[in-house]
Structure to design on (140 residues):
């Protein structure tokens, strides 16, 4: 749970959109999504929200490891936080796809794709959810 929460947070500050044109390339971090022409629901706070939720999952994992009596409860709360992170990421996807289409249409030969930070956050969120379920069930 802790490692998955950290991965989710790290992914939020890595590139979520990467574009390249010839030898030039650029990227947009998860915390910079407010710069999109089609702003996500949480705007510039999307990446920040994913970061904070990842830190929360990591903290809940630490509490679950340190206090066996509350392990089940921390697992359930961790699952809810992981779901919230997934929802935040999912709400940003339409805006990211729109921006990717706009960048691709604006110039022939431009390659635009999801950045690795997006996938790190998604994977961290999924693993955090699974780990939270495991922690909740293993402590019963």
């Amino acid at each position: 749970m802790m490692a998955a929460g950290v991965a989710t947070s790290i992914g939020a500050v890595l590139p979520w959109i990467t574009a390249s044109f010839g030898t030039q390339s650029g990227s947009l971090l998860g915390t910079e999504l407010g710069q999109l022409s089609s702003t996500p629901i949480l705007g510039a706070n999307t990446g920040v929200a994913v970061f904070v939720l990842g830190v929360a999952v990591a903290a809940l994992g630490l509490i679950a490891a340190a206090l066996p009596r509350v392990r089940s409860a921390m697992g359930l709360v961790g699952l809810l936080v992981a779901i919230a992170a997934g929802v935040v990421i999912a709400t940003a996807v339409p805006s990211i796809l729109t921006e990717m289409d706009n960048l691709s249409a604006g110039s022939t030969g431009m390659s635009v794709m999801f950045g690795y930070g997006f996938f790190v956050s998604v994977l961290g969120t999924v693993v955090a959810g699974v780990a939270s379920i495991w922690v909740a069930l293993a402590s019963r």
User: Anything to note?
Assistant: The chain has four helices and three strands. The two ends are 17 Å apart (CA to CA). The beta strands are 15-21, 24-29, 110-114.
